[in-house]
Amino acid sequence: MDKKQIAKAFGKKATLYDTHARVQKYVGDRLLSLLKEQQVSVPGPLLDLGTGSGYFLPALKQFQGGDALYAADLSEGMIRFVNEHYQNVLSSSFVADAEQLPLADNSLSYIFSSMAIQWCEDYKRLFKELVRVVKPGGFVAFSTLLPNTLFELKDAWHEVDERNHVNRFLDSDSIIHAMSVHAEIQSAHAERVVAGYPDLKSLLHSIKGIGANTVVEGSGAMTKGQYVKLVRAYESFRDSSGMLPASYDVFYGVMQVPQE
Predict the structure, then answer these.
(1) SS3 of 92, please?
(2) Rounded CA gap, 95 and 80, in Å?
(3) Rounded (5°) CA angle 216-202-198
(4) pLDDT digits (tens, 9 = 90+) for 198-218
(5) What residue stretches are annotated with the Methyltransferase type domain (predicted)?
(6) Mean pLDDT of 121-130
């Protein structure tokens, strides 16, 4: 993955992100609920890793109480947006790659990361890094995407050409194994979240509106002929309510760093 390209794509959509991110908002709310279910209060800083537009920062501040709240994102554009809109709740924010955090060992009590780590390539290395910066007894809560995400779009594209247009994601068994290497698993489960759109144009616009068109690996602009074929192929998925579905298979994980 070209992380510079990913960061640039999301940064360009910072001001539009919340308008289109209904799936991301739902998933983040579910993840925060899972973290609250641990019913353990660990004093100390919380990091929103892959904060995006910062939408969850007020809720995270309320969860964490009076302790420090940090935000980090791969995208400089997103961090600029966060600084402009959430200075009142933030202790600090910074640009960072989740696989190489500029933080000291045992410096955090919590990491919250929703719909961000799918842009990382090595989950074992990632989780080792996250556990490194969280103190014993602290928590890492994350959500990410599974292989069947946007399967409708993937199948429709197969009717157009043979190229892969949808990114590949790690399966749940591999994620659970990577979690178990470095921490104690408190929660691990998957859920399919489906968003409906009246037509393909609005569906693709929504994906592009959150900067996630970087998920598309096929190079070059779509031709008019390709678009017509894609529309025709996607119509086979139109549901009983008259909407075109876009399915996201989401994995939720909560890990606790072992006590020393």
Answers:
(1) strand
(2) 10
(3) 125
(4) 999 888 877 764 434 444 444
(5) 47-142
(6) 93
By C-alpha distance, which of 223, 114, 204, 210 is closest to 166?
204
Q: How many CA atoms lie within 13 A of 114 on its CB side?
A: 24
The residues spanned by each domain of the chain are 3-148+167-196+247-256
What is the C-alpha to C-alpha distance for residues 242 and 158, in angstroms, rounded to an integer? 23
- Rounded to 5°, the CA angle 143-117-146 comes to 60
Distance in angstroms (rounded) separating the CA atoms of residues 185 and 221: 43
pLDDT given for residue 41 in this prediction:
81
Strand pairing of 92-95 and 184-197?
Answer: unpaired
3-148+167-196+247-256 CATH choice from 3.40.50.150, 3.10.520.10, 3.30.300.20, 3.90.1200.10: 3.40.50.150
Spatial strand order of the sheet with 69-73 comes to 92-95, 69-73, 46-49, 108-114, 134-145, 244-256, 184-197
The structure tokens listed for 174 are 């591999």
Place of tokens 């939408």: 55
Token duo for residue 65: 């109480």
